[in-house]
Amino acid sequence: MMVQIGLIALLVVAYVIVSRILKSTVRLLGQKSFANEVRITYVSKMLNLGFTAVFVMLVCLVLGIGYGQLAIFFSSVFAVVGVALFAQWSILSNITASLIIFFGFPYRVGDWIKVVDKDDEILGQIMEISSFHVIIHRLSGDVVTYPNSLILQKAVVRFDSRDAALAMSQFTERLKVENHKPLS
Question: Where is the Mechanosensitive ion channel MscS domain (predicted)?
């Protein structure tokens, strides 16, 4: 019994230390990539939630709860969560894409980009990267809300400045006009 209490105390201390390290690392990475403070907090909470689940599982193992019982419990929880999220698949994919964008997206708020899409190419400045979408302010003044899961699937061109984006827009318009001229 004393060994279990000692192990649980050790796990709690390790949990607190690793949790603080995780939070400060995410904050540092977020500030390095000029991420929004709300976004940094969101990503930190999501990672902390996963870490807490691992901690609870380890405490259950230390308390002597068998692997079989633990497996049944977690499989039941995952089944319920899976059914709930399957109904909202796009939400789950956007949340996952949000984490990928936070750690690996090469574009930042303020960058001028063009999302290459066959239906409508979106050219503008990134105004915000949120948990579910990227908000792009177009040259025309329109605001486009583009889902995180889709922006990871499309080609994205980054421009050095507004002038470069404007030049690309004008060039694209000239090509469209030239391609629609009647043949003589």
Answer: 91-156
Taking only the tens place, the pLDDT of each residue in 113-152 is: 998 887 777 889 999 888 788 899 998 889 999 888 888 8
CATH number for the domain spanning 87: value is 2.30.30.60
Q: What span, in angstroms and rounded, lies between the C-alpha atoms of 107 and 120?
A: 20
Which SS3 state, helix, strand or coil, does residue 14 take? helix
In contact, 154 and 160? CB cutoff 8 Å: no
136-138-143-149 Cα dihedral, nearest 10 degrees: -30
Residues sharing a CB contact under 8 Å with residue 153, sequence separation 6 or more, in sequence order:
none
pTM of model > 0.85: no
Burial of 37 (0-12, 13-18, 19+ CB in 10 A): exposed
* Boundary-marking domain end, from 33, 65, 97: 65
User: Pairing state of beta strands 122-129 and 112-116?
Assistant: antiparallel
